[in-house]
Amino acid sequence: MDSSERNTYFFQRYPKTTLILATLFGCLLVAVLTELLVRSMSREWAPTREERAKFWRYDPLLGWSHRPGQKGRLNHKDFTINVAINSQGLRDIEYPIERTWKKRMLILGDSFSWGYGVEHQECFTEIIEREHPEWEVINASVSGYSTDQEYLYLKERGIWFKPDVVMLLFCWNDFTDNNIGSASWYFKPYFVEHNGIWELRNNPVPMATMKQRAHRFFFGRTYVIKHLYAAVIHGFYYLRSLVKHNPPRDIPVREQEPEKTYAVTAYLLQSINRLCIGNNAKFILVSVPMEREKQAWLEDLAQREKIPYLALDPYFELKEGQLTFSHDKHWNSIGHKIAANAISTFLRESEVF
After folding, report:
1. Are 206 and 217 in contact, with CB atoms under 8 Å apart?
2. Phi, psi at residue 189, to the nearest 5°?
3. pLDDT per residue over 19-73, tens digit each?
4. 3-state secondary structure of 56
5. Which pLDDT tens digit goes with each residue over 186-223?
6. Residue 227: pLDDT band with limits 50, 70, 90
7. 3 state DSSP class of 115
8. Are 178 and 267 in contact (CB under 8 A)?
9. Are 121 and 97 in contact (CB under 8 A)?
């Protein structure tokens, strides 16, 4: 019996199964062809979340970190940028571990200081470095990081650079993210207080589940197929909720209690400050524009801990024009110039420059 005869036999014996399989295969083929066509013709459907994850790898300490040597383009409906990760896992040029004659500033932060949406040379860190050639400004920022990951990176890796200054760019979502054990479809480390002692949890960080891996791929890497995938997931959750009368949580997170959120953030910033003092480095805190209540809390903490603090709110409020992208909250090249000028002025007034 040749292949055509076997196919005819199978269809005659299992007509419904054959039609279902043929329909599924046809839908899959159409979805793949549509995906390829849209990718080649338009960025409008480009992922707005986590396509940057293609530059990441699992990290047992931090949850995720950059893939050393990874290069590529990051596509968004508002921009397309080039991304190059150096051998040290940073989106920056190579810096030797051993000090040169220059002074050193290590930048910690998330996607804002990483330069999401702008080319490397347009990031405020690079603008500052060009204006002050006597300084090496090492950008250790990683998209999606919260203060707990930034603290652990500094403690275990960043301090090797022996910086004179450590500057952390704080974002409004850090208050929430410092209190959760997963983000960006990865697990992450976090701290909890137990009997007056802060303990590190998710250490080592668990590897991603199959569900998280699937979410990262479809939502973060596909243009069209992600919509089909989302429809399937939502349909599955809906049917499951009907059976269990309680929709399941995809990834468990800690309860968001404001007092705990502020408490862990205070512990982390204080720990970074103590670590810097112990290594003869000056800690400087800078925050992106955010709600007045949160900004005031940071200002109060900085005063109590004697941490030089710059809130960027007034610098952005005084400027007119588009400082962020149309479909994204991150700074465009103009926004980075404003941040660079504000930070440079603050560092001069703080007698760092």
Report:
1. no
2. -75, 155
3. 666 676 676 666 666 656 666 666 666 665 566 778 999 999 999 999 999 999 9
4. strand
5. 999 999 998 889 999 999 999 988 887 777 776 666 66
6. low
7. coil
8. no
9. no
Of residues 177, 28, 190, the one with CA closest to residue 110: 177
CA nearest to 325, candidates 153, 136, 89, 74 = 74
Report the half-sphere exposure of 296 (CA within 13 A, side-chain side): 3
DSSP H helices in 279-332: 292-305, 313-317
What's the CA gap between 214 and 209, in Å, rounded? 9
Quote the tokens at residue 260: 């705990």
What is the H or E stretch that residue 49 is in?
Answer: none
The single residue listed with the structure tokens 């720990």 is 271
Break the chain down into helix, strand, coil percent, rounded to 5: 45, 20, 35
Rg of the chain, C-alpha, whole Å = 24
Instruction: List Cβ<8 Å contacts ≥24 apart for 238-245.
Output: none
* Chain centre distance of CA 338: 22
> Residue 248: pLDDT band by 50, 70, 90 thresholds?
very low
User: What's the DSSP call for residue 324?
Assistant: E
